[in-house]
Design brief:
The protein is an alpha/beta fold. It is built from 12 helices and 15 strands. It has 2 domains: 80 residues, 2-Layer Sandwich (Alpha-Beta Plaits); 247 residues, Rossmann fold (3-Layer(aba) Sandwich), CATH 3.40.50.300. Helix 2 links the parallel strand 2 and strand 3. The longest helix is centred in the last third of the chain and has 18 residues. The N and C termini lie far apart (55 Å). The N terminus and C terminus are likely disordered. It binds adenosine-5'-triphosphate (ATP). The site of adenosine-5'-triphosphate has 20 residues, from helix 4 and helix 11.
Amino acid sequence: MFRGKPRQSDKLETAIRRALGEPAWLQGLRIKEDGAVTLIIEADPANMDEAETRRVEAEARAMNVKGVTSAQAMLTAERQPGQPSPAHSEAPPRSGSQRVRKGARLSDEAISQGQPGQPATGKVPGISRILVVASAKGGVGKSTVAVNLAAAFAKLGLRTGLLDADIYGPSAPTMLGTGDAQPASNEAGKLIPVKAHGIHSLSIGYLSDPDSPMIWRGPIVMSAITQMLNDAAWGTPEDPLDLLIIDTPPGTGDAQLTIAQRVPVTAAVLVTTPQEVALADVRRGAAMFAKTAVPVLGVIETMSWFEDPAGNRHYLMGEGGGQKTADALGLPLLGQLPILNEIREGGDIGQPAAIGDGVSAGLFHEIARAVALNLDSLQTKAPPKIIFED
Ligand SMILES: Nc1ncnc2c1ncn2[C@@H]1O[C@H](COP(=O)(O)OP(=O)(O)OP(=O)(O)O)[C@@H](O)[C@H]1O
């Protein structure tokens, strides 16, 4: 923004709005000091061609305005007719609970909170600790670990939440069997997390239509995450969530960095497969958290081996890589998970393996135990203490 020059910024905003024809679909406008402009454009998820045309044209028109050095438009889901967003509504909050429809748009408040570069401060009221489950690469089993860790903690009686922030492929709804869920809002207008298997969850998958995927870009991603984090009834100061697990998008790009910077994360765990290429990536992940001063508790290796019916282990993706990385980073290896059919199947049918009595439930319990012990040893964390009894 034009700090100290509000009039110049206002003038530019008016000029841009005029150049675009003062459209109702222009949901927000941000102007940086150097004249870089971000347009937040409302779009119909069912008509992405039109949305793309609107985006290209809006960027071109904004670029023609004197003083604009660059223009980038972001699309957000169209507001439902007659459904003002809480941030825009003048009406007092309705009593009882109300539905948030798929495609619900993000509040401007969330959008402004979602701007990168603002450091995380303090704690989220009603959440005792936040654990980020990250992987530097896609498809390594990160969501499986996040969901099953949440299930293992919930099984132990901890008030556990799961925030599925994986915008590229939100899998919590499938893995928890909550694909049809649409979170309601409470009287204060806060999203009520969906409860299944003892886990309170929110996912971008609940808010977007899987048949009409939205284009999620930079700040909008963070807006959605910020809204699910701050505008949700996870817990109260009197009855807080003991642990919120965040399943982050894979990679070490802007979205992940922004989460690490903007969310008051207690600690992170890194998920990897054993092969060398994934290990190089995981090192990048650790470096990213180091940069943002988020403690990394350790490495979890998945798909470590496959055991045939005769009991022979086959190291299909290499052997010992997780331990090697953990050693190189000076971190503990928190656990290894073999390739097990019950893990995949549990994810596919919405019954996390960790809630059952199989081999994998025991493994996830052990990893949860290692995570809890490491969380407790962090000086920064707050009570309650997580106690495991064998
Ligand atoms: N230990 C395991 N044994 C068997 N199957 C597994 C195991 N871990 C993960 N899978 C399966 O591998 C697939 C990918 O896992 P998952 O979705 O958890 O990966 P991810 O890293 O979160 O992927 P994405 O990058 O899409 O977010 C899923 O079908 C899952 O069920």
